Amino acid sequence: MSDGGADDKIEIVKGFIAPVRLRYTVNAGRASSRFLRGLTEGRILGQRCPVCHKVNVPPRGACPTCGVPTEEDVQLGEVGTVTTFCIININFDAKARELPYAAASIVLDGADTTLFHLIQEVPVAKVRMGMRVRAVWAAERGPSLESIDHFKPAGEPDAPYDSYKDHL
Ligand SMILES: [Zn+2]
């Protein structure tokens, strides 16, 4: 019988399965609704802050920096720059992609915040910071970021670090 002393062999817990689910419904609100309708139409919309003039995408109806309402819609281009990225080696949803694949934070031209999306049509070992990428629209669009199937290399020279260092 153990006396609880320091010599006891302790088995370290490294993981456990917790079958917890949260079901909830999100009301998109005006700004997100315009953004989602834009995706249905093949357009990526941001909103410009009237105080700091930064363009936030996806728009939330208020500037996250200044806390003021944003009303001015800005249509963004489909090309942007990879700021950071990661390589995924484990599939975690039903829409399996061929492993490994890359997901990246992308600052679209004209935007000041980043979108997180898939990078395809390039070996993961070639994905890099500063890479210029272009949105590839899904065959069927709807009010969802899944209207953009993925981003692919835009075939442009890499953006210089100084051009995106403030978006990391
Ligand atoms: Zn602002």
Can you describe what's shown?
With 168 residues, the chain is mostly beta strands. Helices cover 7% and strands 28% of the residues. The protein has one domain (29-167). The strands form 2 sheets. A 5-stranded antiparallel β-sheet has the order 6-5-4-7-8, with no helix packed on it. Strands 2-1-3 form a 3-stranded antiparallel β-sheet, covered by helices on one side. The longest helix is centred in the first third of the chain and has 12 residues, at 29-40. It is globular and about 65 Å long. The N and C termini lie far apart (55 Å). Residues 49, 51-52, 54, 63, 65-66 line the site of zinc ion.
Structural class estimated from helices and strands? mainly beta
Main sheet?
A: 5 strands, antiparallel
- Rg is 21 Å
* Overall pLDDT confidence: 91
Oligomer: single chain
Short structural description:
With 168 residues, the protein is mostly beta strands. It is 7% helix and 28% strand.
Layout of helices and strands, plus pairs?
Blueprint: H1 29-40, E1 44-48, E2 55-56, E3 72-76, E4 79-88, E5 101-108, E6 115-119, E7 132-137, E8 148-153
Antiparallel strand pairs: 1-2, 1-3, 4-5, 4-7, 5-6, 7-8
Zinc ion (ZN) is lined by residues 49, 51-52, 54, 63, 65-66.
Give me some keywords for this one.
binds zinc ion; 168 residues; 1 helix; 3-stranded antiparallel sheet
